[in-house]
Amino acid sequence: MELKKSNDASIEKLRGPIILMGLLFVGSIVLASFSYTVETEREGKGKVAENVADVQFVQDAKPEDTPPPPPPQVDAPPPVSEEIKEEENTEVEPVAAIPIPPPVKIGPVEEVKVEEEIIDFPDVEASFPGGAAAMQKWIAEHVNYPQTAIEMNEQGRVYLSFVVESDGSISNIAVERGVSNDLDKEAKRLLRQMPKWSPGEAKGKKARTRCRLPINFTLN
Q: Which of 96, 185, 208, 219 is in the most buried spot, having the most CB atoms within 10 Å?
């Protein structure tokens, strides 16, 4: 038996509406997905902007200045009494200024001469001018025998030591061994009255030399 197609059962007529409905469905899906993507981007940008704004706010924010410490408490001074006390006059009388003496003028400083060494054993001995004979003659002519010594019959030899300076003068006279007080004084007087001696020499130069001399006192 041959089957026949029914015009009522044919779906060819429905193909167009079905395709149109499919296109609408696909378009609505595409539009929905596009709208979701745009909203997502907007939300992302908004969050980034919020984060940037938060960071900017944190950077711009400055720490608050620490308030200065409170000033130290100072005790108030005690109230001053309004009573006025009468004080005695304590003015000190002015003291007359002590006059300053004028400066003392200092004269020239004298040079201190250092004494040369006295040589006991020089290269050249000091001597009386003219020698020993001339000295004995000079003593015999200038001696003054003390009267008290004559009366007491005092006689003997007085030993003297002295220094002949580099200029021939005599100094530092001392009695090493004497006879009596009167004869010792006369012996020293004779030595002081002597003319200058010829000075001694040491190392080729005139020097201070020590000499010894006996003076004999005898009564004829």
A: 208
